[in-house]
Amino acid sequence: MSKSTGVASRPVSVSDVSTPRAELFARVLDPASRANPYPLYAALRSEPVSRQSDGTWVVSGFDEIAALLHDPRISSDMTNAGQSAGGQSLIMQDPPNHDRLRAAVMGRFTPEVVESLRQEVHNLIDGLLDAVGSGTSLDLVEEIAYPLPVSVICALLGIPPQDEARFHGWADTLARTLDLDPTMSREEQAAIDHAFTELHHYLENLVADRAEHRGDDLVSGLLTGGDRGEPLRGQELLITVRLLLIAGHETTVNLITNGMLTLLRHPDILERFRREPELVVPMVEELVRYEPSVQFRYRAALADIEIAGTTIPRGSVVVLLLAAGSRDPGHFTDPDSFVPDRIPNEHFGFGGGIHYCIGAPLARMEAQIVLPELVRRLINPRLTMDPPPYRPTAALRGPRHLWIEVDGIRP
Amino acid sequence: MRVMVDLARCQSYGQCVFAAPEIFEISGQEVLEYDSAPSDEWRLHALRARAACPVQAITIGPAAGPGQDLRQPPATRPAADSVGVLR
Amino acid sequence: MSGYPSSRSERVVIVGASLTGLHAADALRDGGFTGHITLVGAEPHPPYDRPPLSKRVLAGRMSADSTGLPQRQDLDAHWRLGNAAVALDRDARTVTLEDGTTLGFDKLLIATGTRARRWPDPDEAALTGVLSIRTREDAVELQARLAARPGRVLVIGAGFVGSEVASVCRELGLDVTVVERSAAPLAGALGAWAGTAAGRLQRRHGVDLRTDTSVVELEGDADGRLRRARLSDGAVLDVDVAVVALGAVRNVEWLAGSGLTVDSRGVRCDPYCRAVDADGRPCDDILAAGDVACWPHPLYEGLLAVEHWDNAVRQARVAATTILHGPVREHTALPTFWSNQFGLNIKVVGVPGRADQVAVLQGSVERAAFVAAYGRGGRVIGALAVNTPRALDAYAEMISRRMSFPPDLNAADAPDPVHVLDLAVPAAG
Ligand SMILES: Cc1cc2nc3c(=O)[nH]c(=O)nc-3n(C[C@H](O)[C@H](O)[C@H](O)COP(=O)(O)OP(=O)(O)OC[C@H]3O[C@@H](n4cnc5c(N)ncnc54)[C@H](O)[C@@H]3O)c2cc1C
Ligand code: HEM
């Protein structure tokens, strides 16, 4: 079977983590922890709601995260914790505005719309794998996982194929804005601003065009409205479309990449998956639990919140460490094991409560199509480097490259 | 195949509707309705829905009852010999 | 644990083969029980789900046959269906069935639930067209009558089941009159404030709702068919279908003389689901769960008797734990239930019916999407979420923590200002 060179000695045990508890989250943010943050999470979980030395409150227990995801004293609008107005999009807003915008999207992001992209996803993965050609090594991120989700979103939004290349560029740059990252450099910020402006102009023209010629794409749908949501217009429409692009991109890249990485680290499961392709249904869920693209989300406390024997004061920055909750031994048996058919599997990979991921059905469908295709077509895949290099961002975690050697690609 | 949703747990996330629109439906704004005895044709879709449910509220299985108890063919094993029937 | 062997020789008899019985059997097998399980049921059907009976089945969108519940595993159970238990002999540890069979047990789980309270006058209750809704057969008959498009349907009692029936009638375009003795529908469970809102909703949907009124007489014709109903205010309604929705009665008659503490609230249990004998001592070998049981809950005064789906499932699991391991896990789950009517998703947690105050803390009643919290003695004791099903967990947490009422949430979608309303203080119990 595939041999992966130098599999990281995982999991590191909690006792190896000697950092004071109030500094643990700083270590999570440190890019050096990216390959395996889970021992840090386990250490944090010994105090499921933990105040860090910088004043943020990190929540890492399953029950506590579940409670706060549903708590009306918790806000996604970080101005409530004294931060400058970040995004205006619905992911950073609270009810009632959040609910109104979300209803508008949900009204048009229907099962039929998602289903209509199924063939497109098949075509895309076929094309991307064909393009690898007769090579015996590939970077799964660059060649497969990265291009695919943007193309899917372009299809969803009805972006004409000739504009897709530009979209890929903007998406790359803007992916980082989902992370509230204090370490971002001035240049990065400038690049992001530039991409925002360009995307904005592009979308303005797109919307103007769709306003004239309605199609069956999502932008036209949002302009028209549906039975459950009012139509969106102007800035709100632009910002919402931009959110779909950002939220649906790198998250899905990481899901596909982490999926292949995890399978290559578990040759027995990979073998079983070859024999039982339907295993993909529970397995994708387990991937989102075990190696979640979104590791944590920021929130603000609107009132004092008594929880787990402590009180989070009003105005605090709260970190919901979703990935830690999804590995809480109080909720999952053997949480650090990858169990492809884990049932039940109630995880936080797509969040929970009113901000539960809108794109989850699309992400599931993409992964459920792409992973079996990769496993079917890549002949004897092997990891070239383990752990692979990671992107620096902590909240949105995933490999920057995943180099794989193969004996060939099946047609 | 029988489907049961624990509607006390259900929070109307609607993920099941995406996975198995033949079985699940959100009616009105937030009311989940479902066909509890769907055709076996939709088995894969039902399994997708069960996996996707954010609160894992979906149970799928054969209809409960004597017919399902493989080790108790009623004709061949009268209850009296093993269940402790005292006359 | 000594005294609680789960050996192959152990015999568990479960009386009542419905939601509670099925989940108890499932939990026993989950817990590794390898002994004999016998499920005794008065109804001829294997376990089925009742909530759809007053909703989809009644509306004709689902057949009653489809309500059969799934089973998650091979239960290896012995089923005695269509055969009611008629007596319990505690000393001999036997249950006698209708057909004369006697079943010996090492552990007995009483899960006989409730039945619909009948119209008090037996002759009037026997009129054709006077129905209630508890069983599959009830639902099939009522559905057929609604499908025949009667001129007007009378619903007697505006609790949850009555209100759901009224909702289905309106959905089918049928005229419906709901007669409720108290001041508002659902007031018993949700208090007068929410009841009044529910009343407005029903009227807006075209229900002829008559509160502070009762039905005093049902009149039939020579063929014994319902024709008219006389109301306490002197009004006379021409109706040929009347749905008696006056709540439920616990199926405990078969336990008469058993020496257990049993009354109209059901079988008295301790927090581990063990039935309590006449001296107040819990019996290790006799348990009760589901609609038929009542027990002391740490958060509420007196005894709690909960007639909801969720309680049946959870209490069944606690009972199974006690059967397998003895009194190690208390049944402390908060009561919670849902109802779907007039297009709304209604979810409730805690015991709002015992509250002395209520306040809407999120959303707006006018837009029919809100959460109201209920307080008693300055503590949060319940919550009602209408079309906001993702909000309720947080309130369950507040109830468990006995948070002071009204809680300071400062929610982004709170009404400004938050109004706290006083409710007439109901008696505990
Ligand atoms: C129309 C309707 C709608 C409902 N809607 C909702 C809802 O929306 N939400 C919610 O939370 N709950 C709802 N419920 C309540 C829920 O269905 C009950 O809480 C649940 O059925 C309780 O299960 P149980 O097994 O304890 O009792 P039951 O379901 O009452 O079952 C008891 C069983 O025991 C049998 N039995 C009785 N006596 C004997 C005997 N002597 N020997 C043998 N067997 C016997 C009975 O025939 C019955 O089959 C509804 C109930 C009804 C009737
Ligand atoms: C594997 C892929 C994905 C993962 C792991 C993921 C994860 C998440 C998570 C955890 C949240 C919750 C954020 C919070 O609570 O603050 C979220 C929200 C969101 N996601 Fe995803 N996502 C994925 C793919 C997608 C896709 C493909 C789309 C769009 C097409 C999308 C659109 C959104 C949107 C719009 C929100 C905001 C919802 C709201 O605030 O109400 N996501 N996602």
From TrEMBL, chain A:
- Pfam families cross-referenced by the UniProt entry: p450 (PF00067)
Q: Which PANTHER family match?
A: CYTOCHROME P450 YJIB-RELATED, P450, PUTATIVE (EUROFUNG)-RELATED
Protein family according to the UniProt entry:
Belongs to the cytochrome P450 family.
Keyword terms: Heme, Iron, Metal-binding, Monooxygenase, Oxidoreductase
Specify the domain of life of the species encoding this protein.
Bacteria
- SUPFAM superfamilies in the cross-refs: Cytochrome P450
Gene3D superfamilies given for it?
Answer: Cytochrome P450
Which sequence ranges are marked TM in the entry? Answer: none
Question: Mind telling me which InterPro entries this protein's record contains?
Answer: Cyt_P450, Cyt_P450_B, Cyt_P450_CS, Cyt_P450_sf
Instruction: Name the CDD domains on file.
Output: CYP164-like
Recorded source organism is Catenulispora pinistramenti
Full protein name: Cytochrome P450
UniProtKB/TrEMBL annotation, chain B:
User: Where in the sequence is the signal peptide annotated?
Assistant: none
Q: What cofactor does this chain's UniProt record say it requires?
A: [3Fe-4S] cluster
InterPro entries in alphabetical order: Fe-S_cluster_ET
This one is known as Ferredoxin
Q: Which UniProt keywords apply?
A: 3Fe-4S, Electron transport, Iron, Iron-sulfur, Metal-binding, Transport
* Species annotation: Catenulispora pinistramenti
Q: Where is this region: Disordered?
A: 63-87
Query: Does Iron show up as a keyword for this record?
Result: yes
Keyword Iron-sulfur found: yes
Automatic annotation (TrEMBL), chain C:
State if Flavoprotein is listed as a keyword. Answer: yes
Keyword Iron included in the entry's annotation: no
Residues in domain FAD/NAD(P)-binding? Answer: 11-316
The coenzyme or cofactor needed here is: FAD
**Annotated Reductase C-terminal domain residues:** 337-411
Instruction: Alphabetically list the UniProt keywords.
Output: FAD, Flavoprotein, Oxidoreductase
Q: Which domain of life is it from?
A: Bacteria
Q: Which SUPFAM superfamilies match?
A: FAD/NAD(P)-binding domain, FAD/NAD-linked reductases, dimerisation (C-terminal) domain
Instruction: Supply the PANTHER family for this chain.
Output: APOPTOSIS-INDUCING FACTOR 1 (PTHR43557), RIESKE DOMAIN-CONTAINING PROTEIN-RELATED (PTHR43557:SF2)
Q: What is this protein called?
A: FAD-dependent oxidoreductase
Tell me which species this is from: Catenulispora pinistramenti
**Organism classification:** Bacteria, Bacillati, Actinomycetota, Actinomycetes, Catenulisporales
